[in-house]
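User: Quick sanity check before I run a bigger batch. Here is a single chain. Can you write out its predicted 3D structure?
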Amino acid sequence: MQHPGNLFVVAAPSGAGKSSLVKALRSFDARVYPSVSHTTRAPRGQEKHGREYFFCSDTEFDSMIANNAFIEWANVHGKRYGTSKKGIHDRLVNGEDVLLEIDYQGALQVREAFPQAVLIFILPPSWDELRSRLENRGEDAPEVIEVRMKNAEVEMAQVSKFDFVIINELFESALFDLKAIIHAQRLKYASQRRLRADVFESLNLS
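Assistant: Done. Predicted structure follows.
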């Protein structure tokens, strides 16, 4: 099923800079709407319920799974994350561009539900840089960082299944690349035909 809006999915291993890039993109582009996922993990730092995530209990999450309420859900670092099917569908039908910031498992599941979704993977420039970013973040104990590094091997092995790859070596360059992908998708024939139907009709173009 085709929808008027575009669906973008951004995935990356922890520490690659995915969240920072998505936050910066949204500050430049008000036409990109975030999808707020549900998660069973506890809030971090200044995160608020309904803004970064919908924080819920395992029981609540189980109920949503039973009711087929998720497009995708996955177990990441021992906690579960899920994307609301209705929330995404309603925005796309209204012609809005939606951006999902999820792990690679969820991204591939979204592709099954929405074949037209644009999948974007963020890579770090090196293993040393990835470890440095995780350590400098100051959020995880050393043993947790080791788990994240090990998981990154599995996650980055899936990069060939994505449409676009951005290497986040210099943040400004990576952000430019992300904005370019979003803009290019909007310039495709199908998108332009939907958004500027008046021009096509005035030019007698079908």
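Strands lie at 7-11, 32-34, 37-39, 53-55, 70-76, 79-84, 97-101, 118-123, 164-167.

User: Great, the batch can go ahead then.
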